[in-house]
Amino acid sequence: MATMTLNGAEIEVEAGRPLVEVIKEQGVRITNLCYIDGLAPYAGCRTCIVEIEGGRPGPLQLSCTAVASDGMVVNTEKPEVKRARQQVMSLIMANHPDRCLTCHRRVHCQPGEICLRDDVVTHRCLTCSKNYRCELQTSTELIDMGEFEEPWVGEDRSYYETPPPDPDRANPFLEFDPQMCIICTRCVRACADLRHTGAISLSGKGPSTMIAFGTGGAIHESNCDFCGACIDVCPTATLMEKPNKWVALAEEWTNSACNGCSVGCTISYGTRDGRPVIVRPDRLNPTSRDQICVRGRFHYDSVTDGQRLSRSLARRGDRLLPVTPEEAMDEAASALAAVKAEHGADAVAVLGSPLATNEEAALLTRLAREVIGTPHLDHVGGPVHRAVAAAFTEALGSDRLTSTYADIEHADTIVVVGGDIEESHQVISLRVKDAVVKRGAKLVLISSRWGELVDFAEVWLQPAPGHEALTAQQLAHSVDAAAGEPATPEGVDADALARACALIADRKPAPPSDDNGASEERPTFAVVFAPDPFSVEPAAQQARATANLAIAALGGRAAMGLHYLPTDGNTLGLADMGLQPGDGGRSFHEIIEGAREGSIRALLIHDDNPLLSATGTADVRAALEAVDALVVVDSVRSTAAEHANVVLAELPFFAKNGTITSGDRRITRQRPAAEPRRDEREGVAILTALANALGGEFAYENAADVMAEAAERVEGYTRYEGLMPSRTRALGEMTAARTQYQPVAAPAAADNGLRLITGRSLYTSWEASSIHSEDADKLHREEDALINPRDAEPLGIRMGDDLVLAAGDAEVRITARLDDGVAPGTVYVPAWYDGGAVMALFPLGGSADGTAAVQVRALQPA
Ligand code: SF4
Ligand code: SF4
Ligand code: SF4
Ligand code: SF4
Ligand code: FES
What we know:
Largest sheet: 7 strands, mixed
Radius of gyration: 29 Å
Shape: globular
Distance between the termini: 77 Å
Number of helices: 24
Strand content: 15-25%
Bound molecules: iron/sulfur cluster, FE2/S2 (inorganic) cluster
Oligomer: single chain
């Protein structure tokens, strides 16, 4: 620690900390236009000048390059210090369209007056989209730029002498208006150092210096993935969110959580007029901290208010027409009750969704089990999750892994097993990159197709699809022969496998632990595992192999180093709340089969769309068409809802109150960031009303009541009063560690011919895809089939050709993209392309290796 004096006050600070951060932490406001907290200083703007008494070569120093030390005496407010800052700011403003900001008369002017320049007076930048939320604006105020003589008196102002460069408004997420840029390079450093993407650089020289994306073209042609980290740090209107750009002056901020994947990043919604208009990361979650991905930042806007379901609907003939909420509720309850009365409760099935909250899942579970009395309760991803959970329980004694995602970036050796976690779970991919770039961690990547993590991997093992588990098991066996020797995985290069094994053999030794695996220290080895999202068997094998690898490398501490990434947001919360088949209950696939053959006669679907999320579309559609009663609760009129008897209009996810449980068991709060419109009601209110209309006696007023009750019976959960959002983990009592190796089976040999693979992609919105919106992928980056050039050539397929992919009676039309990132013999199509069209080419429940045999041909031009 050090004792220093700041503006006359003595303070205790950590020696060596950047002075600018110390100053801000003391509540002293200081301009620092090029500094990003936590990153190395750039020292380009010079607006952070302070006086350091006795400083060398002189007292005026940059507080971003100076560090706190014992005995230091710092002044930020002396007139000469302020004057120095005004001078450097005037240079910045000389090339900025600052309008009234620096006018020396602005303090005399009142809003509405006409000034000497014959313009309406404002001390703000009324024609700028960043007005009232701009750091440059507040910086000029902080140092009273209006006091300072206009810097351009007697000179030409470069801003008005230089034609402004063109803005880039060509993508749906990020607007770039370079005339506003002050070349602080924060964006360059955020993209390079916080995101490891490097999409932005400085180009040009002298007065023509600009920031540029990629090779200087449009943003969407660069490798930018629209995470928005650069927007967060840009102190001007240069980089801004395109959605709601001109209205995103938030009236309120609401802390919440993203449910776009199981990372559970915390976010804040800025709201205006009762709707969210902007999203910022919220640092509550130790995994995501100040970073999120394009889904968390922009998917609140993927479906317009007009496309949302603000009225409840009921079937009238072959049409769904708006009815009052009371009518809709009556009809929903009557339809379900009629089936139960005629065919028994066993003829009713209930489907939930990992997009829903824990409270909704708990209610839906009670509604199904206690009120309707059916054990047939599941969700589309239930079978895959249960297969993974069963493998973990067999291996480790519990599927409640004690590992925390925040530890990944501190591991020295990391093995990632999955499709492309850069797309499916981007913030975890970011933390893996952090470990590699900042700490020199070694990464072994097991994935059948290229993803951005390949560039960060020491070794990329590219097995044939379906052979990921065998590949991971090879690594486990190399560490401990007792793990069991598997069959040789197809497609894996023997040298690469040997290098990966050597790398793992060289891993840092784990710190000692007690018999139960307990240790305060983080494991130095991490296995990060994102299962096949659609096929049960490969997911189960992958879970066994990754658990084996964690046991082989970490022994009794395996559960601390094994990181499970369920595909969907609240997968773990659903399981914890009991949303799964009861005794004798049918799983999702069995429910669909039952509905097709007539033993399931009524379906209640909450927040999901199995026509989008589930493989075997023809079977799912037949099931939805066959049932006597289909009741859907949703915030959009999904393609599944089109088959419904009744659709109950629910609030969208950003308007919900409740909790979700991340893949590392953090309980995070979702708080409402929008007002209900028309018939929209909370899911909790709808499910309570439906239960009571069916004869239940639910007395919940709100989500807090539901959780208060759930916390009594579900281990690890707590009432809201006792919850530390994103910190409380749903772990419960720790069981003694168990380490049990399990055999890993080889998938059945695939037929010759092309194999189709799919996965969760980054940009396409689940909600927009669920209503089959043409704009589900607003960027149109995920609308191609990736085919290896070696396969394309003999089929006469060229880049950009229209293709037909066919399996059985199902066909998908899509454009060809030749890409050697997919293994030869495979074609990759993003899962949510064209409303989940590719799901029709897979059998219900997926396949033994996660692939589907597919015929591919180019469409001949008409
Ligand atoms: S970027 Fe900031 S300072 Fe510049 S015109 Fe806009 S609001 Fe004003
Ligand atoms: S949005 Fe993200 S990836 Fe794109 S330039 Fe900004 S920081 Fe880089
Ligand atoms: S775009 Fe923004 S963050 Fe980047 S250099 Fe310009 S002003 Fe700074
Ligand atoms: S990584 Fe997942 S939870 Fe985080 S912002 Fe992206 S989609 Fe949301
Ligand atoms: S913040 Fe110190 S020079 Fe820019």
